[in-house]
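Note to self: keep these together.
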Amino acid sequence: MTAVKLFPTIEEVFVDNYEKNNQHFLPIASIDLSIIDKSLSGNIHLVYFNNDPYCDESIKHCNEFCDEDKVTFDMIDNKYRLKADYCYFSTNEDWIKYLEEGRKSYEENRKVYHQKNNLKINEVIKNLGEQPEWQQGDEWPTNLQGEKMIFICQVWSHDFIQDSCAEEIFLFYDKSNNLAVQIHQID
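Structure:
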């Protein structure tokens, strides 16, 4: 694998539950951890999801790992397993149009990228291995041991998905517990 691969497949990102994960996640990038730190190995992934912020049912399924602004994955053999129940993605009927809009634009952008290689990785994957540029304030996650997680990168979702819900996505790695954490902030 190259250091950064845009638009990986759902099977490259998730351990199992491909159909369920495909309903909720749009894979943006796979990143070789060794480009962040030579002592690290394997891949970490950036995924997009459009969670209905107005659905009271989804809030009931938040936990210490997944809430309104954060989603966490166990990393198993370089692939993800969500650390929440899929009811976390409960949606009101009026939100479905945004989900469909996002999926359609993602599929179009993915197709164009694979045909024309039109995205420059260093322009869409920002601050790779550097420091995050927060949109709403510092939300740097710590692990269960109280250690700061390793910042990987950030992306502006609108570079990949145009769905009226653009957000900055920050990707972190918890080396001690082998977790990937994404923080989502709206500008």
